[in-house]
Specification:
Oligomer: single chain
Number of helices: 11
Number of domains: 2
Order of helices and strands: HEHEHHEHEEEHEHEHEEEEEEEHEHH
CATH class of the largest domain: Alpha Beta
């Protein structure tokens, strides 16, 4: 509320800026972690440049979180604020492809990697390559960032199917289901293999989805997507599930009920079962220690990687996590980068 009031008055206070240090920092990714690092370091007097792969800044705040939960004007306001402090921003610049981290380090004294968790998971069942089957990443990006809901004004259309299945039970699944409702689907089903108690989404997100008409198909596991002769999804074959003892996640393990297969008609499916860290920068940066899950390994105290002038934070380290966690990583990394730069000759 306070931030909105300040913005409405048009009198956003600019902090006192430290004298220029002459040090240059590159940031890969203009998401929550990258924007936080840029804000903190430019105030401390460093020359900061952000390189963003997409054509708009904000990361998951822009492409992943729907407009009805986070108006994009708020994200744009934060981006313009750091730009007003002197941060340079280049969009359509894919670090790891346009230029590698090592190529950037020939020009910059340090780099922070905040490239996110952009590798969606799929179920690895037959039919996932059919038309009308989306990862949640693609579906939400088409709607949020590329404004597919305003076709033909924008040239990235989103088909308006009559029956949509959203597979998963987290916050992203809820966002996808509620988005499909707003795009005019006749029915939206959330298909989840455990019970309502085990849903990982926040309870308020679950309640909002229910209030808006999302149908919850619980204890249900998709095993096959079935298409027509033109390659479009038409049906989903599922199994009934029952719950056993808790597994390593602390939730009761879903167990298939043998012989319980059934088929449900759907003409679109959104797979929202998780994401892995974006692999491009880890693959193109020799010497970076990578975790078993594909994330960049960092010090929890500093955000520093196995290479002394490279830091990382947010989903590229944690996998898909919260915006607050990413911002916290950015704050920790910025303090460490500042200390590193000021101790260099």
């Amino acid at each position: 509320f306070v931030a909105d009031w300040e913005a409405a008055q048009g009198k956003i206070e600019v902090p006192d800026m430290a004298p220029k240090t002459g040090k240059k920092v590159a940031i890969a990714g203009a998401g929550p972690a990258g924007i936080t690092v840029a804000n903190d370091l430019v105030i401390l007097g460093h020359d900061v440049t952000i390189f963003e792969a997409l054509h708009e800044c904000g990361g998951v705040l822009m492409y992943g979180i729907p407009e009805f939960r986070l108006p994009k004007r708020i994200v744009n306001r934060e981006v313009e604020y750091v730009r007003s402090l002197g941060v340079k921003i280049y969009t359509d610049f894919v670090v790891g492809k346009t230029r590698t981290v090592d190529q950037l380090l020939k020009e910059f004294d340090a780099i922070f990697v905040g490239s996110g968790a952009g590798l969606p998971w799929f179920m690895e069942i037959p039919g996932e390559n059919l038309n009308g089957v989306f990862s949640a990443n693609e579906y939400l990006t088409r709607v949020n960032l590329m404004k597919g809901f305003r076709f033909p004004e924008y040239d990235t259309p989103v088909k308006r199917p009559s029956r949509v299945a959203v597979v998963g039970g987290g916050n992203v699944a809820m966002d996808s289901a509620r988005t499909a409702i707003r795009l005019g689907a006749d029915e939206v089903h959330l298909v989840y293999r455990r019970s309502r108690t085990e849903l990982p989404a926040r309870i308020e997100e679950v309640e909002n989805a229910e209030e808006e008409g999302v149908i919850f198909d619980l204890l249900t596991l998709p095993v096959r997507l079935i298409g027509d002769e033109r390659g479009w999804i038409r049906e989903m074959e599922c199994l009934r599930m029952e719950l056993g003892e808790p597994d390593s996640s602390g939730r009761r393990k879903p167990i298939p009920v043998q012989g319980s297969n059934f088929i449900v008609p759907f003409d679109a499916a959104v797979i929202a079962i998780g994401n892995s860290p974006n692999p491009l920068i880890p693959m193109t940066t020799p010497g970076l220690e990578i975790s078993k899950k594909g994330g960049i390994v960092t010090s929890a105290e500093t955000g520093q990687t196995s290479r002394p002038n490279i830091w990382a934070g947010g989903d590229i380290v944690r996998g898909a996590a919260t915006v607050i966690s990413a911002m916290g990583d950015g704050r920790i990394a910025a303090a460490s980068i500042h200390k590193f730069l000021m101790n260099r000759e």
